[in-house]
Design a protein that fits this description.
- This protein is 49% helix and 18% strand.
- By secondary structure, the chain is α/β, with parallel strands linked by helices.
- The chain has a single domain, classed as Response regulator (Rossmann fold, 3-Layer(aba) Sandwich).
- The chain has a 5-stranded parallel beta sheet, with helices on both faces.
- Strand 1, helix 1 (11-23) and strand 2 (27-31) form a beta-alpha-beta unit.
- Helix 2 (34-43) packs parallel to helix 3.
- The longest helix has 18 residues, at 103-120.
Length: 121
């Protein structure tokens, strides 16, 4: 079973997406802010990180940079709607989505990125 780190400070969105991903076979470890996400990332092993860009305590961009300092290969998918932030994030992540992405499409993209990463191992 693939293990995801999911970071989103909107509790309703977090619970909705977490429940859906769990229902389609992913194990989801979630948190509400960037510092907690970085702490979890440093202590655990994940197959993919799914995160919001607009986070309390640490911006999504800074979280991605901190993760990339330790791991260049883990797939990272980001929810982001600000064009300027998308431009900064694009070179460092495998996908950027709007918050209202179809859940099935999101699950498929997660599987695709995890499989790509496994093939590189």
């Amino acid at each position: 079973m693939e293990i995801l780190l999911f970071v989103n400070d909107n509790i309703l969105i977090k619970e909705s997406i977490e429940n859906y991903l769990d229902s389609v076979g992913f194990k989801v470890d979630s948190c509400l802010d960037g510092l907690e996400a970085l702490d979890k990332f440093n202590k655990n092993t994940y197959d993919l990180i799914l995160m919001d860009n607009n986070l309390p305590s640490m911006s999504g961009y800074n979280l991605v940079r901190s993760i990339r300092e330790k791991d260049l290969r883990i797939p990272i998918l980001v929810f982001c709607s600000v064009e300027y932030d998308k431009e900064k994030l694009t070179p460092h992540v495998q996908g950027i989505f709007d918050q209202n992405i179809d859940e099935e499409e999101l699950a498929e993209k997660i599987r695709e990125e995890i499989n790509k990463n496994k093939k590189l191992s």
